[in-house]
Model the fold of this input.
Amino acid sequence: MSVPLLPSRWWAALKREWLLYHLGDPAFRFMFDPPPANEWVALDCETTGLNVRTDEIISIGAVRIVGNRIMTSDRLELLVRPERGISAESVRIHRLRERDVAQGLPMDEAMKRLMHFIGSRPLVGYYLEFDLAMLNRALFPMLGQGLPQAKIEVSALYYDFKFRQLPAYQQQANVDIDLRFATLMIDLGLPLRDAHDALNDAVMAALAFIKLRHLRGD
Done:
């Protein structure tokens, strides 16, 4: 006898209830509320390296998006004090030295401020998977889970937009599409800010998200 399949919205509701039941700190139940209409949060992190298991977050930048506006007056900039040192190679990338982050927030406090800033809004970012892996590693001891909000990857939106513009023979040939951030921003006619600054990268991701939504007719 076959078991009837539940509609996807039922599965979503069941998953939500399961995550809420296992939420380590009920003070953060608000992240599971229905998100405000037409609002998102673009975010980015700077880290001591690219190893999601051993490297640490040293800065977080986030900005709210409302409709087609980036709320630059409603932003979050956090420096986070790492437990270990910052390598010279890492400093060359993000220009944050040990003395710059020495007075930064402890990780737990930074995560609390970030969660309150995000609320239940969907998250937007460029190669967001890495940032979320770093954030979720810090959040698991507090929540027993990672950030539950919907996630929107800017590079995936850009890929879909460019792929639809290709002639059929190139689509079938799986032609490579350049997904580098600078290439994406220039192609969309958007201003480039200094890279490897968490807030700048979050604002650029927000700009690209808004432009791609417009080009897609969303």
Summary: The chain has one domain: 10-216. Residues 10-216 form a domain with the Nucleotidyltransferase; domain 5 fold (CATH 3.30.420.10).
